[in-house]
């Protein structure tokens, strides 16, 4: 596993507060109407919903990673990938500012995917209420394309992964990092949610991401020069 894999996992984990706002409501909503009040009856829906969601992240990562790898090979791999990595580092820094609640500019890139989501959203609504746990898979796959600045920022790392497989791996790591927040919402773990939303936790996480972004940017600049 590469450093980018672990970085993507940390982005997913540390961006939990954003995940709670964007997808947390859906994660909780899919459990409504399930027969029985036992907590165990919720888990198949939650697991399969998140399986579908992460699968879409991996598809997007494979497309982006493969496309940019081909472009890099066409235009000179070292310089092209270093330039892309510099862009990814900048996105990491902007993401850190967002998570730390110092600057929210990264959320503006969510407008990029709103056109596609306009067509996908009705399909997701038609699947509700979920009739079986397996119906949660296509629902999660559709929801994985929800416009999200956190996802788009991580895709910039998938772009410099070097191949379609590596791009998918980066997005898999990101998706795995988001799971604690998604399961916490679905299982109503209120204490864990409070911890994820804690400002001190967010800012400590943001500082780590900021340091990683600056370090990565410095290395990319040296390669370009």
From TrEMBL:
Q: For this UniProt entry, which residues form the secretion signal?
A: none
Segments crossing the lipid bilayer: 6-34, 54-74, 86-106, 127-146, 158-183, 204-221
Q: Which residues form the Urease accessory protein UreH-like transmembrane domain?
A: 7-214
Keywords assigned by UniProt? Membrane, Transmembrane, Transmembrane helix
- Which PANTHER family does the record cross-reference, listed alphabetically? HEAVY METAL TRANSPORTER (PTHR42208:SF1), HEAVY METAL TRANSPORTER-RELATED (PTHR42208)
- Tell me the protein's name: Cytochrome biogenesis protein
Q: Which organism is it from?
A: Photobacterium lutimaris
């Amino acid at each position: 596993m590469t450093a980018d894999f672990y970085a993507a996992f940390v982005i997913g984990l540390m961006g939990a507060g954003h995940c709670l706002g964007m997808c947390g409501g859906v994660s909780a909503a899919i459990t409504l109407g399930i027969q029985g009040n036992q907590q165990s009856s919720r888990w198949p829906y939650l697991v399969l919903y998140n399986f579908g969601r992460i699968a879409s992240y991996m598809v997007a990562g494979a497309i982006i990673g493969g496309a940019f790898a081909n472009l890099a090979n066409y235009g000179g791999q070292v310089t092209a990938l270093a330039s892309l990595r510099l862009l990814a580092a900048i996105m990491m820094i902007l993401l850190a500012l967002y998570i730390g609640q110092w600057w929210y500019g990264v959320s503006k890139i969510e407008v990029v995917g709103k056109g596609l989501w306009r067509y996908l959203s009705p399909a997701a609504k038609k699947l509700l209420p979920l009739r079986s746990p397996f119906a949660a898979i296509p629902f999660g796959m559709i929801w994985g394309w929800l416009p999200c600045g956190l996802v788009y920022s991580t895709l910039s790392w998938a772009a410099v992964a070097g191949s379609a497989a590596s791009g998918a791996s980066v997005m898999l790591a990101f998706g795995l990092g988001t799971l604690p927040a998604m399961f916490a919402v679905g299982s109503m773990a209120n204490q864990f949610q409070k911890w994820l939303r804690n400002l001190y936790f967010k800012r400590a996480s943001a500082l780590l991401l900021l340091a990683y972004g600056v370090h990565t940017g410095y290395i990319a600049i040296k390669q370009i020069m």
